[in-house]
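Class, study these two lines:
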Amino acid sequence: MPDDVRLDGIELVNGSLEIKGVTGEFDAELVNGNLKSDGLTSSTRVEMVNGDMDIQYTNFDNAKAINLESVNGDIKLHLLAGTNATINAEIVSGQISNEFGMEVIKHKYVGSEMHGTIGNGGVEIALENVNGRIAVNSI
């Protein structure tokens, strides 16, 4: 496939998905499997049930928005140190961590959230999880 192909409407049940070297838009729904990708540069929407996401962005040249949602599993997002982004993360049961110095607010009874900017702000990144972890790491 050409690297700028748009992967739209991927639906997968009971299996894992690995995306390498694709810089076009990415839209997927997965149930019972893991997702691993590297080198993304475009808008992304992923909805998962029962699986872990491990997603790496090399830049945001073609990205308007990034939306990652999970019910049971971890969300790991890897961004370049010089990234410009605005992040909004919420979790019901689990932990949120980041390597960009953003404050994580723990709610009194249940849940945590993290809102902030990296660099000068920019592409909107929304991370939502019910049971699991959210980690925003620097590469």
